[in-house]
Amino acid sequence: MGRSRPRTKQAEIVRRFAARLREVRRSRGMTQTELAERASMAASYVGRLEAGGAAPGIDLVDRLATALGTTVHDLLPLGPLPDPEAVLRDQALRLAEGLVRGADRETLLMLNPLLARLAESPVANR
Fold first, then answer.
1. Within 10 A of 18 (CB to CB), how many other CB atoms are there?
2. Which end of the chain, C or N, has fewer beta carbons within 10 A?
3. What is the pLDDT of residues 96-126, one digit of tens each?
4. First to last CA, the chain
5. pTM (2 d.p.)
6. What letter does residue 56 receive in the DSSP assignment?
7. Alpha helices, H only, the chain
8. Architecture of the domain defined by 12-75
9. CB atoms within 10 A of CB 92
10. Structural domain boundaries of the chain?
């Protein structure tokens, strides 16, 4: 039987890059497959990058940034990562504000009962 190699512990910047790549991809509404196609790479490699299991070269970081419509600098955070819950809260707020601002009557008639129901949930009342 073959021996498995011990998993290499990646540097903190790789873990930060992984989290930021996943966050930006999701905020763009893209799947890993879509990002992979736009960046001309394998979807399985995008998964490895987002899991922090691989450290990309600078040329690949540039291709990913271009595919995501952002900058290399944005994908390589130097400071501590933002709180994921705070990021999700800000994203939800921006999406909701944009939706309400541009909503027609029919959309508002669908949206208001949904929001009321969510507001009544036990999780929302914590």
1. 20
2. N
3. 888 889 999 999 999 889 888 888 877 655 5
4. 53
5. 0.60
6. -
7. 12-27, 32-38, 43-50, 58-68, 72-75, 84-102, 105-120
8. Orthogonal Bundle (1.10)
9. 10
10. 12-75, 84-120
